[in-house]
Recover the amino acids of this structure.
């Protein structure tokens, strides 16, 4: 088995999942409130929502796809398309003034395609994360299957 960067797909049981809301909140903080927000595909038949992220060889999340998909096939097509044009994306550097942290997002043809996985303490870390994301996305392996993300419901007292 070859170890390297990979793309992991996550499935949320419903498009209204609180965990999916955390995903979109991160998008809003990085890209800004004025940006078009990713919206789940199928609103009528809520069979869940699919997102993807780029993982390094040492299991660290490097970047997140910005779109939320109604079906897995669309998420896979999104990643395949971006892998082919990873070096053509335009990167926008962002700064969270309240927390003093650095981030970034990448656009393709004016549409946000990728966001940083997390915020960075230094400009150097941000720049390194962009470089690593571009290199890793180009070479990443699509990991088969999805990981179901469910809200934990516990009826047992602690």
């Amino acid at each position: 088995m070859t170890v390297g960067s990979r793309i992991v797909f996550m499935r949320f049981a419903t498009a209204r999942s609180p965990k999916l809301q955390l995903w979109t909140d991160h998008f809003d903080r990085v890209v800004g409130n004025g940006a078009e927000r990713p919206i789940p595909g199928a609103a009528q038949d809520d069979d869940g929502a699919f997102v993807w992220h780029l993982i390094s060889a040492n299991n660290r999340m490097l970047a997140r796809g910005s779109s939320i998909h109604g079906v897995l096939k669309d998420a896979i097509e999104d990643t395949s398309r971006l892998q082919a044009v990873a070096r053509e994306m335009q990167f926008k550097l962002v700064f969270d003034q309240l927390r003093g942290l650095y981030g970034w997002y990448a656009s393709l043809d004016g549409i946000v395609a990728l966001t940083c996985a997390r915020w960075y303490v230094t400009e150097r870390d941000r720049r390194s994360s962009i470089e690593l994301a571009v290199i890793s996305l180009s070479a990443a392996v699509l990991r088969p299957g999805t990981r179901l993300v469910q809200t934990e419901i516990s009826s047992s007292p602690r």
In short: Residues 151-158 have pLDDT under 50 and may be disordered. The two ends are 41 Å apart (CA to CA).
